[in-house]
Design a protein that fits this description.
Layout lengths: L1 H12 L18 E3 L2 E3 L2 H11 L10 H76 L15 H9 L13 E11 L4 E3 L10 E10 L2 E10 L5
Antiparallel strand pairs: 1-2, 3-4, 3-5, 5-6
Helix pairs in contact: 1-3
Length: 230
């Protein structure tokens, strides 16, 4: 682009008389031989060379023409510079988009990691609470079941436990705990049953407890027995 503009500017100031021929125009009196043509003066030489296609009429360029050529070069350079700026802007936009995608991916990964860590911590807190709750139930009062279905139920066990001074208290204020199920050992069937055996209480029961916290729940079972006095 620069070279062509320079060539155009120079062409506006130079008045070449030959195309493809670097020799000067022959002076008058010189003998010229071109393709079998013999001339002896400058005017005739020009006419002969023009007929043969080796000579063209001198171009006359004014200062105004030179300024026009320089102005055209300036416009071409401006267009070239503008196109380069456009390409650079597109590259910057692509870079910004790529960086944004990477940052969003990292942020999503960090949020997932934080959520997983929080969830794990909550589950651990619930498991610890269940362990403490079941251990305290082992030391609590044992209720003997009878034919009366209102005895030794989750409700009666929970009421007795809540009235116990040494009961376990959840470490978090929003954490709740409770007894959800009572099963009674039946030696005849060799398993725990939901109702008191016909032979009466056999000294062993299984309690199911639940702890709720932060929208999560955990359950556990504990087997308790009646102390037999000697």
């Amino acid at each position: 682009m620069v070279q062509s503009c320079l060539s155009g500017s120079i062409a506006a100031l130079v008045d070449p008389e030959f195309v493809g021929n670097k020799n000067q125009v022959p002076t008058s009196g010189e003998q010229i031989h071109r393709e079998g043509v013999h001339v002896s003066n400058r005017s005739a030489a020009r006419s002969s060379l023009m007929d043969l296609g080796l000579f063209r009429t001198p171009l006359v360029y004014s200062a105004r023409s030179a300024r026009s050529a320089r102005s055209a070069c300036s416009r071409n350079r401006a267009r070239s510079h503008g196109s380069q700026q456009g390409a650079s802007l597109i590259e910057v936009l692509i870079s910004v988009v790529l960086v944004g995608v990477v940052i969003l991916g990292l942020a999503a990964g960090m949020l997932t990691l934080i959520g997983t860590s929080t969830s794990t911590s909550e589950r651990q807190q619930i498991q610890l609470a269940l362990g403490s709750f079941t251990e305290s139930l082992k030391a609590g009062a044992y209720e003997t079941c009878t034919s009366n279905s209102a005895v030794a139920t989750p409700a009666t066990y929970q009421a007795a436990y809540d009235a116990w001074p040494s009961k376990w208290t959840p470490p978090q204020g929003s954490m709740t705990s409770g007894i959800t199920r009572v099963e009674y050992w039946d030696s005849q069937q060799a398993k725990f049953a939901d109702s008191c055996p016909n032979a009466g209480d056999q000294g062993t029961q299984r309690l199911t407890v639940q702890v709720d916290w932060q929208g999560r729940s955990g359950t556990a079972q504990v087997v308790i027995g009646k102390l037999v006095s000697q």
